[in-house]
Amino acid sequence: MTLEARELTVRFGGVAALTGVSFVVAPGTVTSLIGPNGAGKTTAFNVITGFQRPTQGTVSHDGQPITGWRPHRIAARGLVRTFQKTSVFPGLTVRENVLTGLHLRGRVGVVAALLTRGRVREEERRLGAEADRVIDFVGLGARRHDAAPALSYGDQRLLELAVALAAKPRLLLLDEPASGMTASEKRAVAALISKIREEGITVFLVEHDMRLVMGISDRVLVLNYGRLIADGDPAAVQRDPEVIRAYLGSGAHADA
Amino acid sequence: MSRIALGLGLIVIVTAPLWVWNPYHLHTLIMAGIFAVLALSLNLLLGYTGQLSLGHAAFFGIGAYATALLTVKLEWSPWIGLLASAVLPAAAGFVIGRLALKLRGAYFVLLTISFAGCVSLVSVNWMDLTNGPLGIPGVPSVEIALPGLAAVSLRTKAAYYYLVLGSVALSYLVCLALIRSRVGRALVALRENETLAAAVGIDATHYLVLAALISAGMAGFAGGLYAHYTRFVSPEVFLFTYTVTMVIMVVAGGKGTLAGPVVGAVLFTVLPEALRAATSWQWQMLLYGVLLIGVLFFMPEGIVPAMRRRWRAS
């Protein structure tokens, strides 16, 4: 279950968001993608998850090319993402949100829904139990029946994570899951990401918080102006002079 | 308490033909039932997937013409006609859903309006098939033929009332079964956040097509019921007013709820008739408008959700 991007290029008119970017996300790792604002991190996520077609290049998963697949099909393959801006189902409760995220784990189609009460009931019971498990996993057990917009910002981000986890990811792509959070909330998210990895889910992370990234990543990729400028373990990347220059500005310390 | 109220309500509804002596009142109730099916059908799209179809009269009309043509020109059984009045519009709904691929919001509205416009023009101009503006008279009434028994005609209003009532119940149950399953959650996900829905593996096109197909089938079936009730079908069935009335019923009743469209359908079928009886025609439409604005102003989310909230608060 290796994700491999090869020579990805995305151009919007004359602007190149990504230029010839290649990388690999190895199974069982936490891999982070960092870079200054506008470096192309979210574009890379959009290309991998099918929300943006690359101008050139390919994405493959387990050797299967998935370039140009529609997002829902990529999700069904086990590549599930979250979004940079908080994205939940606003009209639903926490539990309903997670139940909706469980879509891929259900089987009932229209015909079964209309004609078989028993099968639907059995599936609803199973999905309900799974929803509760996911809610408890992210620590929102006490908010189960609250409307999503009633949650604090930090809890909404956790709900997003729960919805994504519900979709049974093999590779979870998190787009700045800790942005705008307090220090203690960030620690909780970091702990949660480690817990997710322990469940056997590969994590691909876009994040600005260096302490968070360096603390939990096995591998760090650095983008700048749409080009990959570094790729290695956190310590090596932190020492890389080009990363320090491009990402943190010349003269700054890597742990700033 | 609410269970007793529900039971009493059901008794009142089921026994209506026994104590509603005035045929005109019974006629109003039958029309309310037909509109309830229509409102439930529109609600599936508008209330659950969040897409407004302003072409719903087209599905209603196709359903009416389908059974009228089959039963009058080919002399098929009205039951097969009624079946066709659901199947043909459902096929049309499927096509609309496929065409809508990435069209949402205003663009979806425009697509459905254009579709209704085209179908309406065909009904007026394809003289050989539809008889044009003259319409198709003599649509046969529905009969129930049980083996070994004489055929029972549903020609009387009282009998037809039960056919319509059964249809409302069936439509309601179809919607209920969908909403309570994973399919219903997928529809709601499209309304709430289509991007996130795709990210967790929900195929938007599949579910939008599905909703359009079922919704159109139900609307068409209501058209079939209407055709066998009035026993005359003309291009009037495509009037935009029908669509607007459906939208009013769904929105004022409470979109995205199952009871809302039914309550809206009964209220906004009975209300104009009650106003007609109470005042002169000049005042009738004016009062209707004022009442509608009042409902939307004080209960913007619809009557049923507003009542529920009050019930819970008390």
Care to describe what's here?
- By secondary structure, chain A is of the alpha/beta class.
- Chain A folds into 2 domains: 1-78 and 169-256, Rossmann fold; 87-154, no CATH class.
- Chain A is built from 10 helices and 10 strands.
- Chain A has helices at residues 41-48, 71-76, 94-101, 110-115, 117-138, 153-166, 183-198, 210-216, 234-239, 241-248, and strands at residues 3-12, 15-25, 30-34, 56-61, 64-65, 79-81, 171-175, 202-206, 219-224, 227-232.
- Chain B is mainly alpha-helical and 314 residues long.
- Chain B has a domain at 22-238.
- Chain B is built from 14 helices and 4 strands.
- Chain B has a two-stranded antiparallel sheet. A two-stranded antiparallel ribbon of chain B has the order 2-3.
- The chains are: A alpha/beta (256), B mainly alpha (314).
